[in-house]
Design brief:
27% of the residues lie in helices and 26% in strands. By secondary structure, the protein is an alpha+beta fold. Strands 1, 2, 3, 4, 5, 6 and 7 form a seven-stranded mixed sheet that branches. Strands 8-9 form a two-stranded antiparallel sheet. The protein starts with 16 loop residues before the first strand and ends with a helix.
Length: 228
């Protein structure tokens, strides 16, 4: 019997690269927003896209995602969650690129765009008005948005989008913006306050035309125990 010869490796010269794409969520004036930049690769030049970059072979994947966010927004130590891997053969026009998708929660007012970010026209867009994005970024956005919706109903991660002190009205507006539905105010407040995640600061809003509302802050110890 002739010995079986090993088959020639079909992918001997095959190359594949990894990238990290981030859906960066922010919250402003009752509106959930996403940070977008303009693509600079043919055939998507000038088209809006998510924030992303290739992963260096010497980089950890999470390290790369944090680097991408830091380079674009100037922020570090933000809430970042890995969501899904996208690897369709034709998802990139020039290379075989597999992308690890993340979503991040940042405070819009804390972002600082450098010259490179400004060159790519980095800007915030209402999630309700986003249309066709470059590459398969609409699919990535949909996955990450669904993950955020699911997570906020189990963990208080949405608080990452609020200022240190906020009203219950602002908190409800945040939940409504993320979930895409109107919530009953009485039931919402009863449920939220029963979690003991919020502390009454004893302070009131300033500079408002209406009756000033109470300001609350996060109970940090309980927040981190609940997945914050």
């Amino acid at each position: 019997m002739q010995p079986i010869k090993p088959e020639k490796k079909q992918f001997e010269n095959y190359q594949m690269v990894l990238s990290a794409d981030c859906v960066v969520f922010g919250f402003d004036a009752g509106d959930l927003k996403v940070l977008l930049i303009q693509a600079n690769e043919i055939p998507f030049v000038g088209q809006w896209s998510l924030v992303g970059d290739l992963i260096d072979p010497k980089e950890d994947i999470d390290e790369a995602a944090n680097r991408i966010l830091k380079d674009l927004t100037g922020l570090s130590k933000v809430y970042l969650e890995q969501v899904h891997t996208f690897g369709k053969i034709d998802r990139h026009p020039n290379d075989r690129v597999v992308s690890i998708a993340y979503y991040a929660l940042v405070k819009i007012e804390d972002c600082v765009f450098d010259k490179a970010s400004q060159k790519r026209n980095a800007s915030w867009h209402s999630i309700k008005k986003i249309k066709t994005l470059a590459f398969d970024h609409n699919e990535i956005l949909d996955h990450c948005y669904l993950q955020l919706k699911n997570q906020i109903q189990r963990y208080p991660i949405g608080l990452e989008l609020l200022p240190p002190q906020f009203t219950l009205t602002e908190l409800q507006a945040l939940y409504e913006a993320i979930l895409g539905e109107v919530l009953d105010t009485r039931n919402f407040r009863k449920k939220i306050l029963s979690t003991n995640l919020f502390v009454d600061t004893g302070l009131l809003q300033k500079g408002v035309a209406h009756r000033p509302a109470k300001l609350f802050k996060i109970n940090q110890e309980k927040y981190f125990k609940n997945g914050g």
